[in-house]
Amino acid sequence: MAKEKDVVVNPVLSEPDWFIRYGGIMREINRQLETGEMTLDALQANNEHANYWGVVPGWMKDIVIHEGVLFQAFFGQEFDLMPFVETLRPYGRKRINIWRKLGMEPHFLPEVLMSAEATYPGWKIKPEKSFYQLSDQGKLFLPQPDGSLAVSNPAYQLGGSTVLIDTRCKPMYNNGLQMYADDKLLGPIICDLREQNKIADYVARSSRFNMSGNECEAIKPILAAKLGLKPEQVRLEREIEANVIPQLYTDMPRQKDGTTNTSEWREEFFGGRDGRLRGGRSDGGGLANVFCYDAVGRWGDRGCRFLAVL
Asked: How far is CA 133 from CA 81, 115, 237, 250, in A?
């Protein structure tokens, strides 16, 4: 088998076709070189730019540059994507293609505090104020690998992690019979769990709907095995992630998540294990919508979406 070749991007000698499509970082580097604001020696010694001019696997170049362009549009600033490259690279193109066929795409969520006061060009809709209040009061908790709960402090912090994101759009309500599109990811898992009486049965056995927040926990280890990951790497999306992702990744089908009138369970528990966050209903505020409900209750308009941390 031929070895994957690395692509060396030289900002002085070339501006590759893929960069002309996406624009941004390299053009600015070339401008600084031409005006004398930056020397080639300084550029080569500056790790801040290593992810754009250095050695990057050929199959990753579009992924990395696309990520950087979307960050520029949403945050209005650049981020060091070397941690993204270093984390994703060992999994290889073959594994990533398998994930993509299941509707899961690799992305990078930078370490950013998405506070109520923060302003970013692409962040048009923030979670409602009650979410920030609950977080600041220490009332939101995240499950830990040992089964305990720990305060999510603050709950509006993005984690600086390479993740797999479910790209499907949350569907419109249809008397409880609505389904997530082409759900080869969770459909078979949920159907098997219902047939085994490990979660409550439902008229549409492969549906993500009509499951309690606590029943979602049974999916985590099975989904992790399907993705070739450890159980602790898989979880429900946190509220701030579910809010930011549709606004950051505007080329995903789920960019319309805020326009559909179903909601989804979140990873955060409220005040203990009795309550859990849910959100996203268009008739409750769309991407701003967040509320706490009984963690053991089931509703035909409430689904779930998982995220994997690589």
From this structure: 32, 11, 19, 28
Tell me the HSE value of 263 on the side-chain side, using a 13 A CA sphere: 25
Residues 25, 11: Cα–Cα separation, whole Å = 10
Amino acid identity of residue 310, one-letter, is: L
Residue bearing tokens 């709907």: 209
Average pLDDT over residues 254-274: 95
Long-range pairs for 61-70: beta carbons < 8 A, 24 or more residues apart = 61/7, 61/9, 61/18, 62/18, 63/88, 63/106, 65/18, 65/19, 65/22, 65/24, 65/25, 66/22, 67/107, 67/108, 68/22, 68/24, 68/25, 69/22, 69/23, 69/24, 70/248, 70/249, 70/250, 70/251
The pLDDT value given to residue 36 = 74
Closest C-alpha among 155, 178, 217 to residue 300: 178
**Is 294 in a helix, a strand, or coil?**
strand
User: Exposed, middle or buried, 164 (CB in 10 Å: 0-12/13-18/19+)?
Assistant: buried
The rounded distance, in Å, linking the Cα atoms of 307 and 90 is 19
**Cα 79 to Cα 85: distance, rounded to the nearest angstrom:** 12
Distance CA 310, CA 302 (A): 27
Report helix, strand or coil for 140: strand
Asked if residue 3 has pLDDT above 50, the reply is no
Token code pair at residue 121: 């060009």
Round to whole Å and give the CA distance between 223 and 247. 26
pLDDT given for residue 8 in this prediction: 36
- The residue with tokens 């009984």 is 294
Residue recorded with tokens 């409880």: 176
